């Protein structure tokens, strides 16, 4: 029997979510975090989804295959869909797609399974705070199992898969913790500091009116990171690699 999954939407075409690739984006519905700054609140606390057969999603993506050979799976948090995510990735792989997974890191077992079965090609792991429980709880809207995030990071570090640790830089939430984060993820190969852009759709409405950190602030914060590849992403300049 064909399996049903909760789909938030599909974007046919992007060149920015997976640098160097032309990709479609699949937004899966639902998340186990409630990050106050989250601008995908429709996919987290709203009811903005439709239930659809996994094979239909693959068929829709295949109809663009002449132009797009890569798929970004994000959310929400894709790993809450468990074996349904495995099935989606399997069918996409059978159809020849490259797959990037965006994850909050709360399900290391599933990430490991996807890597071991060669069902994903790239992982973007969000690091929302330093690994102090109270800080992560605030940044994620309640998640405190730090070992899960650390395990996901270690799985990526010890794999051959391409990955990046994405750190959203958010004033009044984690900007003052960036130096601590840098000390905790020294083993990660690639780190990206992302400029927070306010939105009307944040889960906590107080984050609608927060000013973005400037590009210069991000460049200065990036100096705390001694990782092999350090990048920033800003609205004005897109992605910039700061290491040579
Ligand atoms: S930003 Fe937080 S709440 Fe929003 S989708 Fe990502 S993990 Fe979930």
Q: What's a quick, concise take on this entry?
A:
The protein is of the alpha/beta class. 27% of the residues lie in helices and 25% in strands.
Fold and architecture overview:
It is a single chain. This protein is an alpha/beta fold and 244 residues long. It has a single domain, classed as Aldolase class I (TIM Barrel). The chain contains 7 helices and 10 strands. It is globular. The model has no long low-confidence stretch (mean pLDDT 96). Iron/sulfur cluster is lined by residues 31, 33-35, 38, 40, 44, 75-77, 104.
Small molecules held by this entry: iron/sulfur cluster
Instruction: Assign the structural class, choosing from mainly alpha, mainly beta, alpha/beta, alpha+beta, or little secondary structure.
Output: alpha/beta
Please give the CATH class: Alpha Beta
Give me the side-by-side strand order of the main sheet: 3-1-2-4-5-6-7-8-9-10
Report the β-strand fraction as a percent range. Answer: 25-35%
Low-confidence stretches: none
Amount of helix: 25-40%
Label the CATH architecture.
Alpha-Beta Barrel
Average pLDDT level = 96
Shape: globular
Q: How many domain units?
A: 1
The profile of the biggest β sheet is:
10 strands, mixed
CATH superfamily: Aldolase class I
Number of strands: 10
Distance between the termini: 51 Å
Radius of gyration: 17 Å
Element-by-element helix/strand order: EEEHEHEHEHHEHEHEE
| CATH-defined fold name | TIM Barrel
Q: What is the helix tally?
A: 7
């Amino acid at each position: 029997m064909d399996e049903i999954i909760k789909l938030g939407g599909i974007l046919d075409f992007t060149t920015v979510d997976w640098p160097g690739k032309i990709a479609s984006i699949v937004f899966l519905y639902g998340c186990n975090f409630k990050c106050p700054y989250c601008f995908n609140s429709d996919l987290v606390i709203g009811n903005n989804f439709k239930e659809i057969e996994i094979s239909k999603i693959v068929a829709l993506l295949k109809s663009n295959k002449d132009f797009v050979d890569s798929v970004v799976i994000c959310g929400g948090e894709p790993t809450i869909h468990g074996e349904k995510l495995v099935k989606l990735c399997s069918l996409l792989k059978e159809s020849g797609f490259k797959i990037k997974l965006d994850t909050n890191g709360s399900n290391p077992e599933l990430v490991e399974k996807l890597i071991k079965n060669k069902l994903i090609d790239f992982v973007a792991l969000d690091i929302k705070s330093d690994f102090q429980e109270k800080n992560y709880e605030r940044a994620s809207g309640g998640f405190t199992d730090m070992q899960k995030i650390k395990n996901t990071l270690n799985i990526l570090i010890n794999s051959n898969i391409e990955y990046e640790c994405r750190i959203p830089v958010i004033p009044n939430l984690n900007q003052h913790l960036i130096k601590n984060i840098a000390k905790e993820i020294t083993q990660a190969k690639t780190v990206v500091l992302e400029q927070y852009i306010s939105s009307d759709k944040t889960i906590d409405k107080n984050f609608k009116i927060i000013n973005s950190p400037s590009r210069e602030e991000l460049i200065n914060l990036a100096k705390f990171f001694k990782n092999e590849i350090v990048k920033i992403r800003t609205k004005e300049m897109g992605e910039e690699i700061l290491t040579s």
